Amino acid sequence: MPKIKKVLIANRGEIALRIIRACRDMGIRTVAVYSTADKTAMHVQLADESVCIGPASARDSYLNESAILTAALLTNADAIHPGYGFLSERADFAQKVTNHGLIWIGPDAEMIERMGNKVNAKQTAIECGLPVVPGSDGAITSLEHAIETAEKIGYPVMLKAAAGGGGRGMRPVMDPTQMKEAYQLTRNESKTAFGDDTLYMEKLLLHPRHIEFQVLGDKHGNVVIFGERDCSLQRKNQKVMEECPAAALTQKQRDDMIEICKSAAKKMGYTSVGTFEFMFEDGKFYFLEMNTRLQVEHPVTEMVYGVDLVREQIRVAAGEKLGYTQSNVIPHGHAIEFRINAEDPETFVPNPGKITMYAPSGGMGVRVDSAVYTGYTIPPTYDSMIAKLIVYAQNRPACIMRAARALDEFVIEGIKTTIPLQQRLLNNRDVKQLNFDNHWLENYLKKPE
């Protein structure tokens, strides 16, 4: 069994810091990589070693595979943890890591490749017994094929990029008159964003919730499912607020899906952490995609289940058996995560700049995952998320009360943030009463105050 003594973290920001802390708890040394824009970043300061891998542009630094591999070899790292985003779901990079004799902390390259392509992922889901949305049998090969498939499925439908992700490369088609333009636009967007214009089609669900199930598997055939998260409050397919558990589910729906997901993950031979994402409408689940990495919203699961998912991810990569069985995976209480972004809360325009005051909230049941500090300058180069506020309480109403208090306490000055929007959401009756779906937030934002 390989022993991991030093981990290079191929990421930045709060997730890099999160991984550093997990490694320190395990007695593992860490190596931070950074761009010239991040030389004063907290993950650089707290890692045992740090290596500059390039200029500010992500393409020349955090996506520079050669520079990251060279840094790992020069520092004698045993393993590479990709975090989320950047190279975390690049199958070719995962393979290069293992080819260089290093441990990849994540599922193997073949699994990333299989589940990263949406057409292949859907076929795998079907083979493994996961419920799927009615859609095309494989890729859409022409406009005529798209029209024929849509008529077979029934409008409205959604055109999606096979290589898509992050909410890009997808477009609704409400009726036949929209198909020609939507087909061309989606192909062009897919080619530009992902280098691949392959499309597929699915039935468009009009009022779905976004429910995802946390998977953890080891290299010995063991799998556990750490329940589910409700991520339905989204803007342009970007999650704004996430909860665990999904309070809209009945216990039977939850138990049935845990068994279905566990069986599917075992059939796939899945290792490491991962997430099955579903649309949920009228009491039925439909497979959406699988993320073969750690999720941004993993802390809500950790709070409710009392598990350190990053620690388990590292243990699994080292060949150890899971520290859990399904019978002792028991949820307690409720947790909500808020993604605090450096954005105008009305227009959502990114607002990078210097933080003149940073005083995060605290107290019972409050966790803040962030890598910023007073005096830190947020660069304009990367994602605008600067902190995650995670609040835990014994039930959802108590969690909402505590979250309102925590948001009120959170002080970030010098830049605009999305905290005012999140405060409004918590005071909204629909949010309190679980009366929302994937489209609710978009509609809410269009309404005048």
Explained architecture:
The protein has 449 residues and is α+β, with helices and mostly antiparallel strands. The protein has three domains: 100 residues, Rossmann fold, CATH 3.40.50.20; 70 residues, ATP-grasp fold, A domain (Dna Ligase, domain 1), CATH 3.30.1490.20; 238 residues, D-amino Acid Aminotransferase, Chain A, domain 1 (2-Layer Sandwich). It is 33% helix and 27% strand. The protein has an eight-stranded antiparallel sheet, with helices on both faces. A five-stranded parallel sheet has the order 3-2-1-4-5. It has a three-stranded antiparallel sheet with strand order 7-6-8. The N and C termini lie far apart (59 Å).
Terminal Cα span:
59 Å
Q: What integer is the average pLDDT?
A: 95
Strand portion: 25-35%
**For the largest beta sheet, what order do the strands appear in spatially?**
13-12-9-10-11-14-19-17
- Give the CATH class of the largest domain: Alpha Beta
The number of helical segments is: 15
According to CATH, the homologous superfamily of the largest domain is ATP-grasp fold, B domain
Nearest-angstrom radius of gyration? 21 Å
Biggest sheet descriptor: 8 strands, antiparallel
Structural class: alpha+beta
Unreliable spans: none
Query: Would you tell me which CATH topology of the largest domain applies?
Result: D-amino Acid Aminotransferase, Chain A, domain 1
Total DSSP E strands:
20
Overall helicity: 25-40%
Shape: globular
Number of domains: 3
CATH architecture assignment of the largest domain:
2-Layer Sandwich
